[in-house]
Amino acid sequence: MLYVFGFDKVCVVLGDLYFVDPDPLKGQEGAERGVRLELRVIQRGELKESIYASTPIEVDQPIWRADFLEDVDGKPFDRTHHHPVFTGWDPGDRVFERALSADPLAWLESKLSNLGELLTSAQFPLDTAGPDDEAELRRAAPEIVDATRRLLERVRAGELGVSPDPDAPLLVDGQWQLVRSGWL
Questions:
Q1: Is 19 exposed, middle or buried (0-12, 13-18, 19+ CB in 10 A)?
Q2: Do 140 and 8 touch, CB atoms closer than 8 A?
Q3: Whether residue 104 has pLDDT greater than 80
């Protein structure tokens, strides 16, 4: 499932995620599942045909990411982290914070309430956002947090965030296989 909360020049996208990067050198112990949320650039395209045509919308470059993940055995938020910086489309290192693990949804609402700080820490210019984006995001933060909470409930219930093929081998011909489902 994918949610998109769009503003003038930025948007928040979130969806369920199931992820196994089985490379033991990365230190991951088993599969993760949960909700991934990203702050991204959004662009409105020109109408293609008539004034009644659907507007093209492009959800573009990631700015910041929060992963509300836990191992599939259900240890709550044991792998919850964020990525304050991206290099192009690739996230920087995982950053674990005590406040994020202690109360992830309150932490998220606090982060979404300060778009300027998110842009600055992500090394994006403040004009990446439109003039009303910070106020609109702050107003929408409770709704985004609620959508995150509902997705997490559905992941924990086994409705979302499930393996695309639970019987798929993780090692094929000596090569580690990435197993991932979800929009983000």
A1: buried
A2: no
A3: yes
Q: Can you give the pTM of this predicted structure?
A: 0.90
Average pLDDT over residues 11-21: 91
Mean pLDDT of the chain, nearest integer: 89
Nearest to residue 12, comparing CAs of 122, 117, 104, 147? 147
Domain ranges of the chain: 2-181
SS3 category, 122 = coil
Q: Copy the structure tokens of residue 58.
A: 């492009």
Secondary structure of residue 62 in the 3-state scheme: strand
Where helices occur in 52-179 by DSSP H, the ranges are: 98-102, 104-112, 115-121, 133-156
**Is the pLDDT confidence value at 170 over 90?**
no
